[in-house]
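Hi U.,

Before I forget, here's the chain from the pilot set. I'm dumping it here mostly so it's searchable later in email.
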Amino acid sequence: MQQLRLQQKLLQKLSPQQILLMKLLQIPSIGLDQRIKQEIEENPALEDDSPDNVTETVSEDGDEEKDNDEEFDVTDYVDDDDIPEYKTRSNNYAEDDKKTIPFAAGVSFYEVLIAQINHQGFTERQSEIAKIIIGNIDDSGYLQRDLEAMVDDLLFALNMEVTVKEIEAVLKVIQTFDPIGVGARNLQECLLIQLKRKDVEDENIALAIRIIERYFDAFTKKHYDKILKKAQIDESQLKLAIEEILKLNPKPGNSLGETTKVNHYIIPDFVITNNDGILELNLNSRNAPELRLNKTYKEMLLAYAANKNKKDKEAFQFVKQKVDSAKWFIDAIKQRQHTLYITMKAIMDYQYAYFLSGDEVDLRPMILKDIADQVNLDISTISRVANSKYVQTPFGTLLLKSLFSESLKMKSGEEVSTIEVKKILSNCIDAEEKTKPMTDEQLTSILKEKGYVIARRTVAKYREQLNIPVARLRKELN
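Structure:
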């Protein structure tokens, strides 16, 4: 038996405007341009009013007033006299924002390999096999699919019955393509392909081939004593062979020149400049054009509102919805810029000493809550601002997220950033004697001598975060 029951629930829901703002905050400047173009294409009531697509940016005092009237008033949409309110605010962009960044187009790695098929004297059948193989080679130059699986691929995609031997024969030819080492199925095969293209009569090359073929596992783990014993060679011979191996490229796909690679540029979202010891913050808004309501839609809105015919009610609602949506988007863009600015300003003030010197020793411990408390915003909002955003400083362009770190107490009781500790750890490893690299226990002792209270497991964790291998794998021969 069904029963009706009255139940009260307290729910917190985000408005469509808040959801839009949250999404826009996550987008870096380089992606905002595309988002705005998409909105303009989808909403004819929105226009780009920016000459040459260079915009003025919103400064710190650019707070927006919200219209809280629930009743619809046509004058709310047309009283701007075609001049967006935020155009009258102070400029806040860096000089570099006015410059054009060249983007280079290039030939893809896949196209470089495909172009070499025509010079091999392949039959049509072999060419199809070669295309399938090349399609499964990753950007590093490695074949990422089993030959057995490619037998099925050719059968389903091209209705072509082939054997593993046929695919392997074509693969052997592809492994002669440039760059040298391409088409290998693992690192061992990649190194052997490159070595066998050298002068195999050379004693050092021949020994290098023998080491990779027979003692590859011991070589990767730097168990040099085992290699010396099994190969019955002396240390000087081993050193010369290893020198040949170290000349090889473990990722041949990355060896392509700039002409065959598409260049990627980082466009900073913020620019900090040092003017005689005074820091200035600018918000880069090259990808945020000046937006306004479309004149035609404003005139249509006025006309429909004046007539108020039942016949035109549906058209009136459609135009109103488009204009509402355009206004929300314009407000969200302005609010995004304001939120970005006040958040970055708080970060700059918090890390003022670091942005002046560029020395990581001056970097204070900083978590998201520290900044959220300063700007009275939610931690999730600060996280969205910090994610995928870059700041250009006098000493380089930094990922904003990299400035956040936990704290570590020193013997003196002073709190320091874990970034500072990692920097000292990295310097210690750089300066170590490579024939006798320091263990994590030795590194822990050195840090404790410098006043950092730290456990060995923490040192191991920081070393791994720095992508530094254990002592055994850092060992080098004399």
